[in-house]
Amino acid sequence: MSRLAWIPRIGPRLRRALIVLLLLLAVLLLFPFKTTIVPAWTLRVVDESGRAVRGIKVTEHWQHYLLESSGHEEVRQAGDDGRVSFPERAIRASLLGRFLATIVRLTKSGTEAKR
Fold first, then answer.
1. Entry pTM
2. Which residue positions in the chain have pLDDT lower than 50?
3. What SS3 state is found at 38?
4. What is the reported pLDDT for 113?
5. Which listed residue, of 37, 95, 98, 108, carries a Cα 20 to 30 Å from 57's Cα?
6. How many C-beta atoms surround the C-beta of residue 80 within 10 A?
7. Which residues of 25-60 are buried (b: 16+ CB within 10 A; e: fewer)?
8. Backbone Cα Rg of the chain
9. What is the pLDDT of residue 12?
10. Residues 75 and 58: beta-carbon distance below 8 Å
């Protein structure tokens, strides 16, 4: 007797409920949830005497080490008041994708991937 032989014996209501449950589980596993890597932030560049340094270039580097194999960077220039603002950096990935990425990283890097 097959392992799935019990399926025809369940009622239509229970079968529909199981199908809905499986669809909800699939959506949950495949929906690309947003994760903020770096929040939006602003800094002010000053010299030794506390005066604003205008026109200086500031570089932001970011990477989600689990989901991305390489990093990103953006260079911005300070304004007249020495301020530089960077936007939020975010990534979208499904729970299934995150799980698989974790497995791949662990198999490639061992326990170092957890750090």
1. 0.71
2. 113
3. strand
4. 47
5. 37
6. 8
7. eeeeeeeeeeeeebeeeeeebeeeeeeeeeeeebeb
8. 24
9. 82
10. yes
